[in-house]
Specification:
The protein is an alpha/beta fold. α2 packs parallel to α7 and α19 runs parallel beside α20. Helix content is about 30%, strand content about 20%.
Length: about 900
C-alpha cells in the first residue's frame, strides 16, 4: 500500500516539516521519531511511504521542525484516515490544523449530543478505480440537516443544488463524499451548502466559490483532500438546561433518593421543554461512616466508583423472595414520603436489597461476557476499591491507618486478599457486581440522553477524601500535611476548609498528569461535558495546615512567600515573634468571651507578658480546641470554643511550610486585633505589602502553572470543559480560560468586576455558562428576602421596576430574571431546578428556604435537598412546561 502525505506550509530558512503518527513507520506518536518530509516547492511538503496492507486506520500530526524545537499542530485534533484497499495508492492532501475559533463545537457535547448525526448505511460508494474524497469540517450542522456539494462539473450537479452530492457524517465533525475521478479535470470550482434530507437549500457557506487544483488522479489512485472548513457566518448557537443533584430527584418508583431511572425521566423533561443539557453534582461513592456525614458529594472515597444509592431498583429483576419484596416495598413507600433524603436509612436499605439481588443473580451476571469485559477494562481501580470497601467494613473505619497490615497499601498483599479462592472474595465480588450494575444503568441513561439530543454535564471535584482509595493506593500524589480549602469570601467569612489533601503537582507533572487523565477518561464513559469544581485549584490552592480547622490561616500553594528583607522594604519593621506567634491583648478578651473571660483566662490562657496572653499547650491549635469541645453545643461552650479558635488566628504572617524563613501575609489580617494595634505607618506599610502580594505578585507565576497543568488535560479529553471560577480570582484566570476555551461561570449577583454590584448580563462572554445561583448559594426566592436593601437596588436598577418592592419573589419577577439570563450572550444558560419552579405559583414549594442545597459556612452541612413533586407530576405540568419551552424559544436557544 503506497501512501503519499502532502501539506502546504510556507516555512523560512532552517525550518522543515515532519509527520508523526500512530504506526511504527511514523514513530508511534513519539515526537522525537517524527519523519522529515521532502520539500516539493511552492510551500508543498511530501512524504511517500509503503505501508503494510494490514494497516487499516492511521492517526497523525504534522510538526514544524527547527533544530531541536518542535511545534505541532493543534493537539486537540489529529488527522485520521481509514484505508479500504490493502493494495491501493493513496494521495492525502492535508491542511495545517489551527485551534478553532470556537473549540467547544468540536467537543462531545456537540458531536455526540446537540449536533450528533447517525452513521448512515446508505453512503454512496463510487465503483471507479480512481476516486477523489473530500472531507470538510462542519461542526454546526444540526440534526436532520446535511452538508452537500455542488460545482461546475456534471458529477457535482453543474451548480443545480437538487443534483448536488450529499456528504456523509464520518467521525464528527467531519463530513465526506467520494467522487468518481475518472472524468474530473482540474482546477474545479465548487461550494458547500447545508440542506434538508430532500436537498432543499437552507444556506450556503460564506465566501467565494472554492477552487480545487490538484494533479490528475491516475487509475488505481485515491486522492483525499482533508481538513477543509465549512465557512460559517451565522449567529452563534446557544442552549439552555437545568442543574440539579441526582440525589434530589423524586419519582414514584425511586427509593427515597434520586436514581438513574429518575435521571432518565429528567432527560424526558428537558427534551419536552426545549432544554439540551442537564448538570449534576458528583456521583461518586462517598460511603465512609454510613452516617449522614457521607452525604457530602464532594468527598469521594473513590474518583471512579459510583455511589450505590443511585442504582435504580425498579430496573432490576424482582426478588424471588416475596416476603422480602413486600418488606422493601413497604420501606420504599415510607422513604418516598419523606420531604428530604434520609441518607442513613436509604443507603443501608438499598445495599440490603442489592445484597439480596446479588445472592439471587450474581453468579449468572458475573459469568456473562459483558461483565467480564467490564471487569477487565476497570480492574486497575475496581480491585483497590473493592478491597478498600471490604477493609472499611471489617475494621469499622475508613481511616486506613487503622487497618493493621493493610494500613500501607501493598499490591502483592492486596492481590492475595482479593484472590478468587480467598475468604474475602464473596464480599469483594459483591462490590464488583454492584459497580457493574451501576455502570450499565448510567451508560443506559447517557446513551438515551444523547439520542434525545441532551448532554449530561458532570462535576469534577477538586479534592478527594484524605482517607479515600486514591490516597491509600497512591499517597505519593498527595500532601497530607495540608488541607485544601478556600480563602474568605461571600460564602464564608472565615474561609472554607474542605479537609482534602492537597496535590503533589511536581510529581504529577513527571508522568504527564496520568492520574488526572484517568479521571477524565472515566468521566467520558457517561458525560459529554463537565464542570471543574474550583478551577482555581489548577492555578493555586488555598492550603491550610492540618493544625487548623478554619481557613483564615491558610496560604496559597504554590506561591512566592516573602523574605524578611522583602517585608521590610515595604516599610514594616518585621518582628517575627510578635507577628507569627498567636497572642491577644488582655483588653480584647472580653470582646471574645464576655462574662466568661476570667474563667477562660484561668483555664485556657497563659500570660506571655504584662499585656498579652497565649493559648496553653493543651489547646494551642484549633484541632486541639475542636477535640476539647467535641459534642458540646451549648451557647457557652460554643462561645468559648470560637473565641479560642479566634486567638489561634491572631497573627499577621505565616511561616511557609517548605521554607520557614519565608512568610505569607495572613488573609484578611486587617480584621485581627494585632493589625489594629499597629501604628498608622505600619498599617499603611502592611496594606501595601498585602495588596501587592495577593493581587499582583503571583499573576505570571500562577498563569504559568495553570497552562502547564490545564493544557495537556484539556487536550486529552473530548468533553466540553467548564470551570467554576468564583471567589478570589487571580487576574490571569480569564486569560488562561480564554486561551484554552474553557467556559467560565457567570452569576449576576457575583460580578467579576469590582466596580459593580451586579453583573451586566448583556456583556457576558460567549464562552461561558450563565446561571442564577449554584448549589452553594440560596435559590432566587430565598435570596430575594436576604437583604432588602440589596433587593430594592436590584429591583429598580436591574429589573427597571418602580413602586414598592414586593416582599416575595413573585412568579412574574422570577420570569423576568430568568428571561434576562436566557437572553444573555453565554453559550449555555443552566438554571437550578428550584429557580425554574419559581415561575409557577401553583407548583413552587411553599417554603423557599427548604430549597437550599448547601451552606458552605457549615462544614457539617447535611446534603439532603429533594424535589417536592415527583417527576411524573413535573412531566404532566403542561402550563409550566409550555412556559419554559416558550421562554427558551423566544431567547433563540437550542
Amino acid at each position: 500500500m503506497i501512501v503519499t502525505f502532502q501539506i502546504n506550509f510556507h516555512t523560512v530558512w532552517g525550518q522543515k516539516i515532519g509527520i508523526v503518527g500512530s504506526i511504527p513507520e511514523l514513530g508511534n506518536h513519539e515526537p522525537a521519531l517524527a519523519k522529515e518530509m521532502n520539500y516539493a516547492g511552492d510551500g508543498n511538503w511530501r512524504l511517500t511511504m509503503e505501508l503494510p496492507g494490514s494497516v487499516q486506520t492511521i492517526s497523525y500530526r504534522y510538526v514544524l521542525m527547527e533544530g531541536d524545537q518542535l511545534t505541532f499542530e493543534d493537539r486537540a485534533r489529529y488527522h485520521r484516515f481509514s484505508f479500504d484497499d490493502p493494495d491501493g495508492r493513496y494521495l492525502l492532501y492535508d491542511h495545517w490544523q489551527l485551534r478553532p475559533e470556537h473549540l467547544p463545537f468540536y467537543s462531545f457535547a456537540f458531536t455526540k449530543s446537540f449536533f450528533a448525526h447517525p452513521q448512515t448505511a446508505d453512503r454512496k460508494k463510487t465503483e471507479s478505480n480512481s476516486k477523489l474524497t473530500l472531507r470538510v469540517l462542519a461542526p454546526r450542522v444540526e440534526r436532520g440537516r446535511r452538508v452537500a456539494l455542488t460545482g461546475d462539473h456534471a458529477c457535482l450537479g453543474n451548480w443545480d443544488t437538487e443534483q448536488a452530492l450529499f456528504l456523509y457524517p464520518e467521525e464528527a465533525p467531519v463530513w465526506s463524499v467520494d467522487i468518481d475521478a475518472s472524468t474530473l479535470t482540474f482546477p474545479l470550482q465548487c461550494k458547500f451548502f447545508v440542506c434538508d434530507e430532500n436537498k432543499r437549500l437552507l444556506y450556503w457557506e460564506e465566501g467565494e466559490n472554492r477552487t480545487l487544483d490538484i494533479p490528475l488522479i491516475a487509475p488505481g489512485e485515491q486522492a483525499v483532500v482533508s481538513d477543509l472548513c465549512f465557512r460559517e457566518n451565522r449567529p452563534l448557537w446557544r442552549g439552555a438546561g437545568t442543574v440539579i443533584p441526582v440525589f434530589s430527584l423524586r419519582s414514584e418508583h425511586s427509593f427515597g433518593v434520586g436514581d438513574f431511572g429518575d435521571l432518565q425521566m429528567m432527560v424526558d423533561w428537558a427534551k419536552k421543554t426545549g432544554q439540551c443539557i442537564i448538570q449534576v453534582l458528583p456521583m461518586n461513592d462517598t460511603i465512609a461512616t454510613y452516617t449522614w456525614r457521607d452525604s457530602y458529594p464532594y468527598s469521594a472515597i473513590s474518583v471512579y466508583a459510583l455511589h450505590p444509592m443511585y442504582l435504580c431498583l425498579a430496573w432490576l429483576k424482582s426478588l424471588c423472595d416475596c416476603d422480602k419484596m413486600d418488606y422493601f416495598a413497604k420501606k420504599q413507600k415510607e422513604l418516598n414520603a419523606c420531604e428530604s433524603v434520609d441518607y442513613e436509612s436509604v443507603v443501608p436499605l438499598k445495599l440490603d436489597y442489592c445484597r439480596a439481588y446479588f445472592r439471587q443473580e450474581g453468579k449468572s451476571v458475573m459469568e456473562s461476557d459483558s461483565y467480564k469485559t467490564f471487569f477487565k477494562q476497570n480492574t486497575s481501580w475496581l480491585i483497590p476499591y473493592a478491597a478498600y470497601s471490604y477493609l472499611r467494613d471489617v475494621h469499622h473505619t475508613a481511616d486506613f491507618s487503622q487497618w493493621n497490615e493493610y494500613a500501607v497499601y501493598d499490591l502483592s498483599g492486596i492481590r492475595k486478599l482479593c484472590a478468587t479462592d480467598g475468604k474475602a472474595y464473596p464480599e469483594l465480588s459483591f462490590y464488583y457486581f454492584l459497580q457493574y450494575l451501576l455502570h450499565l444503568q448510567f451508560k443506559r441513561v447517557s446513551d438515551y440522553a444523547r439520542e434525545q439530543g441532551v448532554a449530561l454535564k458532570g462535576d469534577l471535584p477538586i479534592g478527594v477524601s484524605r482517607t479515600g482509595v486514591e490516597v491509600w493506593t497512591e499517597p505519593q500524589y498527595f500532601n497530607l500535611d495540608g488541607q485544601a480549602g478556600a480563602p474568605p469570601d461571600d460564602f464564608s467569612v472565615d474561609g472554607q476548609n474542605w479537609m482534602f489533601p492537597t496535590y503533589n503537582w511536581p510529581l504529577m507533572a513527571k508522568d504527564d498528569y496520568a492520574w488526572w487523565k484517568k479521571r477524565f477518561a472515566k468521566l467520558e464513559d457517561y458525560f459529554d461535558c463537565f464542570r471543574i469544581d474550583h478551577i482555581l485549584g489548577f492555578f493555586r490552592i488555598w492550603e491550610i495546615p492540618v493544625a487548623y480547622v478554619k481557613g483564615l490561616c491558610g496560604h496559597f500553594s504554590p506561591a512566592l512567600p516573602l523574605t524578611k528583607t522583602e517585608i521590610e522594604q515595604y516599610g514594616l519593621a518585621f518582628d517575627e515573634r510578635r507577628f507569627t506567634r498567636p497572642h491577644i491583648a488582655g483588653e480584647n478578651l472580653s470582646l471574645l468571651f464576655g462574662e466568661d473571660t476570667e474563667e477562660v483566662k484561668a483555664a485556657f490562657l497563659a500570660q506571655a507578658s504584662f499585656k498579652y496572653f497565649v493559648l496553653k499547650p493543651f489547646c494551642d491549635t484549633q484541632r486541639k480546641i475542636e477535640a476539647l469541645f467535641a459534642g458540646k453545643e451549648d451557647a457557652k461552650a460554643v462561645r468559648i470554643r470560637n473565641g479560642l479558635c479566634a486567638i489561634a488566628h491572631e497573627v499577621l504572617f505565616l511561616h511557609d511550610p517548605q521554607c520557614p524563613d519565608r512568610f505569607h501575609p495572613r488573609i484578611v489580617a486587617s480584621e485581627s486585633f494585632l493589625y489594629k494595634e499597629l501604628a498608622d505607618s505600619d498599617r499603611q506599610a502592611f496594606d501595601r505589602l498585602y495588596w501587592h502580594f495577593f493581587y499582583h505578585r503571583h499573576n505570571d507565576f500562577w498563569k504559568k502553572r495553570a497552562f502547564e497543568r490545564l493544557t495537556p488535560l484539556s487536550e486529552h479529553t473530548g468533553m466540553l470543559i467548564c470551570g467554576e471560577d468564583l471567589g478570589m480570582i487571580p487576574a490571569s484566570v480569564p486569560e488562561v480560560m480564554n486561551e484554552l476555551q474553557i467556559l467560565s461561570l457567570e452569576i449576576e449577583r457575583m460580578p467579576k468586576k469590582d466596580d459593580c454590584e451586579f453583573a451586566d448580563l448583556t456583556q457576558l462572554p460567549y464562552h461561558s455558562v450563565c446561571t442564577t445561583s449554584t448549589h452553594d448559594m440560596s435559590p432566587l426566592r430565598s435570596w430575594w428576602k436576604e437583604d432588602r436593601e440589596k433587593t430594592s437596588r436590584y429591583y429598580r436598577n436591574v429589573l427597571q421596576q418602580t413602586g414598592t418592592v414586593p416582599e416575595e419573589c413573585t412568579s412574574e419577577i422570577a420570569s423576568q430574571i430568568l428571561s434576562n439570563h436566557l437572553n444573555a450572550p453565554s453559550m449555555l444558560v443552566i438554571i437550578p431546578w428550584q429557580d425554574w419552579m419559581a415561575i409557577d405559583d401553583a407548583l413552587k414549594r411553599g417554603d423557599a428556604d427548604a430549597e437550599r442545597i448547601n451552606v458552605p459556612a457549615n462544614a457539617h452541612h447535611y446534603w439532603r435537598y429533594r424535589m417536592h413533586i415527583t417527576l411524573e407530576t413535573l412531566l404532566q405540568a403542561d402550563r409550566l412546561n409550555e412556559r419554559i419551552a416558550g421562554m427558551i424559544k423566544r431567547s433563540n436557544r437550542g
